[in-house]
Write a structure and sequence with these properties.
By secondary structure, the chain is an all-alpha fold. The chain contains 20 helices and no strands.
Length: about 450
């Protein structure tokens, strides 16, 4: 059965809640810009696939590889982000990612052949993978437990906002009829927000938990005083963080893959894998192509993509507002059911060749389910379940699983869809039945519990 923490459903008395500060919100919004760039970079290629196919004479297999080239970068970026974030700090890691985003977007816009394009997309993937680790990690570590869910969920909200902005940008640029270089503009516009992110990150503080691990207690006190503490006492909070790290008996460089951390490791891997087995990123990458397969024109397909992005944004916003009250598991249960209904409808639409409105409605149900469930929960949940001393590596593992599965799903989707679109959606629906069973039987609830208390409840010394 799933794990239920004893104090999970308890309502935190208003008097014991730390005040919500604009400083906390400001730091969160800046860090979450990494998520906005993550979403934009992820979805922008959806409006360029036909142009890339024509420009570089790509087969279905090579087009799939071209889309997946960024995902290879995300795999390496996600698994490699944990160590720099531990050594140099979360803020320094985010600044470095901002630089990579700028170079990648300009590089794609000015790429001179297929290989150079692949190289700059790979660089963008490194930044996306790194941001999927460091942004939620940083926000989780500066946020009191009573606000942590919605604060970390701002990252996902920004991911979805970035996706919507990419679809909207593609649609607007497509309407300008810029000719053969249209796709270059679609990639190049991302350089501006990337530069803004890089500049703003220097206005944020270091993570208090990273500062405690480095023995910089006075700096940690200042950050906790400004962002809020779970206990109401900064000194008590610092003692709890020190106890959770227990660096007298554990090192932040100790082995990660060991029995002690097996529970959170398995939870993170399952969450990351199920997220992609829904087929969400295959749909996001190929949204216009899916609608064109159903008979829509080019501009209509791009506009329907904007509708898809807006739907995800709305439902992610709703989930973000209620996640700290409703709980992570309930959102996942509702989202899993919505996944199954939407994917089954899409599979039937392609199988019976009645795409039209049925396909659009089914995909909107699917997208709404993702925004309300997995999309809102994944980065919150993974950022919560690992102890302070290995959280960066744990976040990296969950993100690595997510992106590795993403690469495989996105690479194979155009090949499977070309043969029989209904088979892809039917497979994803079956996987979501498995996710529903996992949530009901295994997934623990973590709402309203301090990061240090979660560690104790998972039985990690």
């Amino acid at each position: 059965m799933h794990t239920t923490y004893s104090n999970t459903d308890a309502v935190v008395p208003a008097a014991s809640k730390p005040p919500f500060t604009l400083y906390l919100l400001g730091c969160t919004l800046v860090a979450a810009l990494g998520g906005l760039l993550f979403g934009f970079d992820t979805a922008v290629i959806s409006g360029t696939t036909d142009a890339l196919r024509a420009k570089f004479a790509l087969s279905d297999n090579l087009l799939g590889f071209t889309v997946a080239s960024a995902l290879i970068g995300t795999i390496l970026g996600s698994i490699g982000a944990g160590r720099p974030a531990d050594v140099f700090g979360r803020r320094a890691a985010l600044a470095a990612l901002g630089v990579i985003y700028v170079v990648s977007s300009l590089g794609c816009a000015f790429s001179w052949d297929w290989w150079s394009f692949l190289g700059f997309r790979f660089m963008g993937g490194l930044a996306v993978g790194g941001a999927s680790v460091v942004s939620p990690l940083y926000i989780a570590e500066i946020s009191p437990a009573c606000y942590r869910g919605r604060m970390v969920a701002i990252t996902q909200f920004n991911v979805v906002l970035g996706i919507l902005l990419a679809y909207l940008s593609n649609w607007l640029i497509g309407g300008m009829h810029l000719g053969a270089n249209e796709w270059r503009w679609m990639f190049g516009v991302m350089a501006a927000p990337s530069l803004v992110f890089f500049l703003l990150i220097f206005l944020t503080p270091q993570s208090p938990r990273w500062l405690v691990a480095r023995g910089r207690l006075e700096e940690a006190r200042v950050v906790l005083e400004r962002c809020g503490s779970d206990t109401g006492s900064v000194e008590e909070e610092i003692r709890e963080i020190q106890h959770s790290m227990d660096l007298a008996h554990h090192s932040i460089s100790e082995p990660f893959y060991c029995r002690r951390y097996m529970k959170p490791i398995l939870l993170a891997v399952a969450m990351g894998a199920f997220n992609q087995l829904s087929g969400i990123n295959a749909v996001l990458y190929y949204t216009p192509s899916i609608f064109k397969m159903a008979g829509a024109g080019v501009e209509s397909a791009l506009l329907q993509s904007v509708i898809v992005g807006f739907t995800m944004l709305v439902f992610t916003m709703v989930a973000m507002v209620i996640i700290d009250h409703f709980g992570r598991r309930k959102l996942m249960i509702i989202g899993s059911i919505g996944y199954i209904l939407g994917l089954t409808g899409a599979a039937y639409a392609f199988y019976a060749k009645v795409e039209g409105p049925l396909l659009l409605v089914s995909l909107l149900v699917f997208i709404a389910a993702h925004g309300f469930g997995q999309g809102a929960v994944i980065w919150v949940f993974i950022s919560e379940i690992f102890p302070n001393r290995v959280r960066a590596r744990g976040q990296a593992l969950g993100s690595f699983t997510h992106w590795a599965m993403n690469a495989g799903i996105s690479w194979t989707f155009p090949i499977i869809a070309a043969a029989a679109g209904w088979m892809a959606f039917g497979f994803y629906a079956l996987c979501m039945v498995g996710q529903l069973v996992w949530v009901l039987m295994v997934m623990p609830e973590t709402k309203g519990v301090s990061l240090e208390k979660i560690q104790e409840e998972l039985g990690i010394e």
